[in-house]
């Protein structure tokens, strides 16, 4: 660290600060992603749908809470509004998604910004180092002083790349995880909506069948 400060010139300070910020955010986001379930298993989904079919809404909600992730929260909201119609169910699930998904993107834009600006800062250090080199060359041309300017130029470029590559790698890793979670959530959401739609259609068919004249006439004859 002392070597970087001594040889990197003034540009090394924002580079080191950027690396500290980026590392802190990456570790915080990594811990958040690891402790938050981002998928809902097929087995648990089947159990939830079965409980809804048997009209055990409280148990279905409990199973959603058992998941503990955004997928479970979205399904829970839809189940709680299952008596309000499919349009209302879709709206309330969309609302909870807008509330939950941004939590996963929190501060990631800072990591992306640092990943993109670090090479530019490194290049700035390269330019200032070369300016210093040519300035020394114009004055005396002492090899030792020339080496200091060249060292500064190369060092800041290397540090900028060392910060940029992991930062951008972590950013795109997290964004990929979020996209997969969003797609998985929407898949489970459609499974719930299609199931509720089929249950509603089945109920309507039963009511329609029960109300046929033949059935009514047969019931009157039996009386």
What secondary-structure arrangement, pairings included, does this model have?
Elements (H helix, E strand, L loop, with lengths): L1 H7 L3 H24 L6 H12 L3 H11 L2 H11 L5 H19 L3 H32 L3 H68 L2 H10 L1
Helix pairs in contact: 2-7, 2-8, 3-4, 4-5, 5-6, 5-8, 6-8, 7-8
Please explain how this structure is put together.
The chain is mainly alpha-helical and 223 residues long. The chain has one domain (2-210). It has nine helices and no strands. Helix 2 (12-35) runs antiparallel to helix 7, helix 3 (42-53) packs antiparallel against helix 4 (57-67) and helix 4 (57-67) packs antiparallel against helix 5. The termini are far apart. Mean pLDDT is 82; it is low at 215-223.
Key traits:
mainly alpha, 9 helices, 87% helix, 223 residues
Short description:
With 223 residues, the protein is mostly helical. It is 87% helix and 0% strand.
Order of helices and strands: HHHHHHHHH
Number of helices: 9
Whole-number total of structural domains: 1
What amount of the residues lies in strands?
Answer: under 5%
Mean pLDDT: 82
**Secondary structure: helix percent:** over 70%
Low-pLDDT runs: 215-223
Q: Give the terminus-to-terminus CA distance.
A: 96 Å
Structural class: mainly alpha
Principal-axes geometry comes out as rod-shaped
The major β-sheet equals: none
The count of DSSP E runs of length 2 or more, i.e. the number of strands, is 0
């Amino acid at each position: 660290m002392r070597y970087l400060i001594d040889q990197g010139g003034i540009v090394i300070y924002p580079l080191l600060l950027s690396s500290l910020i980026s590392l802190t955010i990456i570790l915080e986001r990594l811990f958040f992603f690891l402790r938050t379930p981002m998928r809902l298993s097929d087995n648990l989904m089947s159990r939830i749908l079965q409980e809804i079919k048997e009209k055990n809404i409280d148990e279905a909600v409990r199973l959603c809470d058992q998941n503990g992730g955004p997928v479970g929260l979205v399904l829970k909201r839809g189940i709680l509004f299952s008596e309000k119609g499919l349009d209302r169910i879709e709206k309330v699930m969309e609302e909870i998604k807008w509330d939950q998904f941004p939590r996963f993107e929190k501060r990631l834009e800072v990591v992306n910004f640092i990943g993109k600006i670090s090479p530019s800062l490194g290049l700035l250090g390269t330019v200032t180092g070369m300016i210093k080199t040519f300035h020394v060359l114009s004055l005396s041309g002492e090899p030792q002083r020339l080496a200091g300017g060249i060292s500064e130029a190369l060092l800041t470029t290397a540090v900028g790349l060392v910060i940029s590559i992991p930062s951008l790698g972590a950013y795109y890793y997290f964004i990929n995880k979020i996209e997969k979670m969003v797609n998985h959530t929407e898949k489970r959401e459609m499974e719930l909506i299609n199931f509720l739609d089929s249950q509603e259609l089945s109920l309507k068919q039963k009511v329609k069948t029960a109300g046929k004249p033949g059935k009514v006439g047969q019931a009157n004859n039996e009386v």
